[in-house]
Batch of 4 targets.
Target 1
Amino acid sequence: MRIVVITDTHGRLHIVNNLVRELDADVVIHCGDIGLMSHKRVSKISNRELSLHIRHSSLDDAVRRNAFDLPRSEKIRIVLEHNLLGEFDRYLEGEETFVIPVYAVWGNHEDGFLLNQLLSGDLSIPNLNFLTAYSDIVLDDWIRLTGVGGNLVPPNLFTKQQPTHPKPQMSFLDWARLAEVLEHTHDNEQQLWMVTHVSPGKEPLLENFSLHLRPDFWFSGHMGAPLLQHYSLFTYLDDYEFYLRYQQQYQYYKALWDEKIGSNSSERNGFHEDEVELMRRWHGLLECPITPSEDAYLPDKVESRTSANYTKGTMFFNLPDAYYGGYLVIDTNPTDRSFEFQTYGQWTPPVQRK
Ligand SMILES: [Fe+2]
């Protein structure tokens, strides 16, 4: 099976079918910022979002430079005149269609109203499927796909996210649901592939979730990396170092939990009682599963430091933007469960050599 993984199309949706045809792919995984926007809803789109569409367009430099300073009416005029919200309208109107199944999480630059309509079934786009705790997607009988969409905004982790929020975010409830579903349904004979928009490499909380949920592969986007970034935690830190790296974040999230969801809190932050119960059941996801020992970091304890191998569990892939031509192709071989990877991106050094 040939799987193309892409991210951050930001409305340039023709890229998807072009790649599928060029690479003869069977399935697409999309890590978010699809470009779920409609010109019909331009009046509802935030000023910042309009400015970003102008800034990242191919219009004249002068217009792009001033994108954030223009009056709103001018931004709307430019966006409409140059069709800057992208091609999703063509899919909404049935003029275009994805030629093979696309399994996607949503990013932070989608219109939450449209997203909510798609998730609730009020709108549907053939072959566009969203990955959530409840999506039950298995590729080739041995690869279970799952995912959590939206941005991670730490102060909002324990606040219920309204589905129509203009900048979609994840909450801890998404992870509690996912953990609950996996506990009851995951088949250990299958691989588990996780998809998020946010990069776990930037959010140790997500890396900590990986130590609990043990996905085999984890794909993400959002960062605008010039080429595929590929790592396992093990390649640069061991279990004890991860524990140290995560501790401050754990203290932060624990305090936030106590404030928002803790037993004395009468505020439910928009969650129903059963949702609070589910989050309480999975509170342990926030904790680092590694038990530290005082001397674990001494050089002569290397053997015992690495013995638990928590950090070897997951391979992380952060994708370059499809918007700029980046992608990853995975050829899977179910017979021996091997993989072949090809990737493409454009390397533009962030710092010029002298
Ligand atoms: Fe993003």
Target 2
Amino acid sequence: MKTTQGQYITKKFLQYTKDLTGIIQKDFPNFSKNEFMLSQITKINEEVGELSGEVLASVGYQRAEKLQKHSKDTLASEFADVFITGLLLAQTCDIDINSALEKKMKVLEQRYKI
Ligand SMILES: [Mg+2]
């Protein structure tokens, strides 16, 4: 499979996450760009932790209280949180995520001969 140039993340979704960043930034009006980036990477780690908890629950390695709350939907929700928080930080870092994805896909194609 060869990567073709494309819009992997849609313009509509990119605009949605830019709008979301604008709203979130209003909660931290005194943050510099660097402080905002540091808060975002911390948030990604928080979300990765929550995803970890859901994965543990999916294989039964959580206490009963957490197992009762776990479902395919809660697992999916945490995947979405990790994806979105990562995209928000990428935008703050002025990363063209579609270009970055395309370049990474080409690297993976060569590495794994896909
Ligand atoms: Mg979460």
Target 3
Amino acid sequence: MLKVVKNVCAAILSANKMDQAKELIEQRIKRIVGEFDFERRRISHPEECLCYLEGKSCHPGKKGEVNCLLCYCPEYDSDKIEGGCKINNPGGKWFYHKSLPQGKIWDCSDCDHPHQREVAEKHLRKIWGN
Ligand code: SF4
């Protein structure tokens, strides 16, 4: 009986530790992503990007904060020479030009998907399995 109680206690403790670890990871994710908000980065690390030095983000049309953690979008399909969007985000579009190897290339200049805090947090959660 004592062994069963011990095992149950160990399982509860372990579950509590797991919950604490998940909570800690979640706090760290929010802190890391927060460090990459454009306005914060512009002040703390102006040398890292021309946009910081000029005080203008590369997505001036985006409403709200631009987050720079995913400067290179993880959804960009770089397996194809012409590129593409793995999630078919309507913010992207094809740019056509006869000098391009495929006659076109995927253009993300109007898409702000990777610059949303929630998207950056989601990717970090995926990496850390949280
Ligand atoms: S920036 Fe937007 S359109 Fe471009 S790959 Fe990422 S999600 Fe797709």
Target 4
Amino acid sequence: MMNREDYERILLFLFLYISTLILAVSIRYGIKRNEEEEEKRKAAADASTAATEEAATTTEAEEKIYRVVIDPGHGGNDTGAFFQTEEGRIHEKTVNFKIARFLKRELKQYDNIEVIMTRTEDVFLYPDERARFAIKKNADLFVSLHNNTLVGAGGYASGFSVVVPLGNYKKEIGKAAQRLGCNIALELSEVGLHNNGLLMRASSDYDYENGKPADYYALLRKLVKKDIPAVIIEHGFIDNEDDFYDFLCTKEQLQKLAEADARAIARYLQVSRTDTGEVLAPLSNYKVKICHIKRNGTAKRFRRTYYTSK
Ligand SMILES: [Zn+2]
């Protein structure tokens, strides 16, 4: 027979057993819930990371950063052309470098452009080195800055011309450079320089892989092959007194040329000015003078209309 004490012990035992059971179940349930919540949190975090990554890719696709390589012509022992003043010679390499520095500063006023210079000091560089530099930097555009001298194959002795690829090879790259050339022609003519338009010159020795005459200038030839639109701007004739004193003599004049170059590049790339958000209207129906020097040295002159700027 069980007495009262026995009953109480059994009850106590049962109570303790059931309590332990309830405690164990609730702990397990709690852990499981925590695990589930943790999983949910992780899934949400993953989704949000994916969304951020996706957004980043979209932004990247929408906001391409254009790498513009500016190449101040000549340097070091290669002084280029010159203007003789009473005090001495003004060398083309110095004028080119000043325009380049202003151009770099100007281009920084626009969104989505990264500017890289082939030289930041007075050093000599071979055309090959300049081209290799641009290729290594994955340039989107290559703009070489020069000033002219003597009556050259183009037959003119004052004003600007933009040397562009013939378009005999990698036609689209050639066309892109020609359209950039049109933008530069428009802007430089507004500064007041005489407009000689675009100059295309064929090499007398080299052919492209497709058998067509290659571009005369090694820089253009090498960059076209690597899909980089490249132009050489001959801003003015440094040995022409009028060009020199009207456009190439003072800091303010050189800055004006650089501003024109920058506007042309920004208009071509359709990037906005950071302070105003303004995007210049793209060039269309632009009729430009072209001087095409063939491989036998004869020059053919004509006008061509470019319908879009890009
Ligand atoms: Zn030069």
